Amino acid sequence: MRKLVLLALVGFGAQLVDGSLGMAYGVTSTTLLLAIGTNPAAASATVHLAEIGTTLASGASHWRFGNVDWKVVWRVGIPGAVGAFLGATFLSGLDTSVAAPLMSVLLLALGIYVLTRFTVAGVRRDRLGQPLRRRFLAPLGLVAGFVDATGGGGWGPVGTPAILASGRMEPRRVIGSIDTSEFLVSVAASAGFLLALGSAGIDLGWVLALLAGGLVAAPIAAWLVRHVPPRVLGSAVGGIIVLTNSRTLLRSEWVDAGDATRWAVYAVIWLVWAGAVAWSVRAHRAERLVLEREAAQERDADRSVTR
């Protein structure tokens, strides 16, 4: 019973982060399952089965708060489903010891870019609203879906920074669209796992516990992403990406850093991340004051004309 309660809390926390920042549900939940000795394929299958419910609830909540671009959902989600099915089917024979560090290098570079741009420049209004091309979204979905199924998580960490880096969507709409499209990925990955594994090694109680926690958190996260300023949200997402992939690289065979080195790097990242978010909050407040003054001046001008 204690384990089920813990899993429900993990599901709640993972979905709160995932629904707010567009990533980390699968990574967090799969990490816990692996820590207690679950087979990697069974752990990923358990998480993806739970995600069918959590992503459906999250997508509905994001749609309710106006955070979803349905063209992006279909254009990235359908290829993502294909990639997830393939990744789930071949997980047992796939060696990701080399692929994971390579992907982390790419994601770390994207994370630094996103963190820097949103902290320093904010949201680029000149490109917001421009359409995202299918030739960009389809390959992105295929790769992200494959990584998600084989790694037990990755749809958000791959998809969110790539679309954020385009500068063509507000962070809240990127997160809402990625979370909504993840439903298609979860269904396809679960089908692939059930085809390859059957129900062996999948604990239905664990699935339901993760699902219960995620369902409670989904509407809270959708409300949160609706009300957090885009500049602050972009800095927060960038920090998550940098921290997560730095950890993967430092623990990989490529680097194999010692505990002291790893914790020193983590401390620096946390300090830089906290400073970036604080700067973004301060910059957002300054921008809001300017906009309020301009709006007040326009109202005064309108009143003088009517008189």
From TrEMBL:
Topology versus the membrane, per the UniProt entry?
Multi-pass membrane protein
Q: Which GO terms describe its cellular component?
A: plasma membrane
| Keywords, comma-separated and alphabetical | Cell membrane, Membrane, Transmembrane, Transmembrane helix
Location(s) in or outside the cell:
Cell membrane; Membrane
Xref: InterPro entries: TM_pro_TauE-like, TSUP/Inactive_protease-like
Chief subcellular location equals membrane
Keyword match Cell membrane: yes
Top-rank taxon: Bacteria
State if Flavoprotein is listed as a keyword.
no
What residue ranges are annotated as transmembrane?
72-92, 98-115, 136-155, 175-197, 204-225, 263-281
Which Pfam family is one of this chain's hits?
TauE
UniProt family annotation:
Belongs to the 4-toluene sulfonate uptake permease (TSUP) (TC 2.A.102) family.
Entry-linked PANTHER family: MEMBRANE TRANSPORTER PROTEIN MJ0441-RELATED (PTHR43701), MEMBRANE TRANSPORTER PROTEIN YTNM-RELATED (PTHR43701:SF12)
Q: What is this protein identified as?
A: Probable membrane transporter protein
Instruction: Record the organism.
Output: Phycicoccus avicenniae
Kindly list the organism's lineage. Answer: Bacteria, Bacillati, Actinomycetota, Actinomycetes, Micrococcales
